[in-house]
């Protein structure tokens, strides 16, 4: 079922070295990806959330840092969400906007 209300989840960023451990994503996380979520799997994005924003607030301003991409299931322990790293794609985005 689709919610009638906009949903959000507050999730911490996870260092790529942690995400690349054997019991998590075993080296699959590249510099163009960001891991975010809880290691216990309590909160996560899921099917239907792809393309949704991963944002952070710095000095009162919200910044887009990633977009929801993939994960191994939904809210599974040691399988946090994987997001596209927007900083990797900034030049491409600017070129598309011309």
Automatic annotation (TrEMBL):
Keyword Cytoplasm part of the UniProt annotation: no
Presence of keyword Disulfide bond: yes
MF terms (GO), sorted A to Z: serine-type endopeptidase activity
Pfam family, one: Trypsin
InterPro entries, A to Z: Peptidase_S1_PA, Peptidase_S1_PA_chymotrypsin, Trypsin_dom, TRYPSIN_SER
Residue span(s) of domain Peptidase S1: 1-98
Keyword list, A-Z: Disulfide bond
Gene Ontology biological-process entries: proteolysis
Secretion signal span: none
The family this protein is said to belong to: Belongs to the peptidase S1 family. CLIP subfamily.
Protein name per its UniProtKB record: Peptidase S1 domain-containing protein
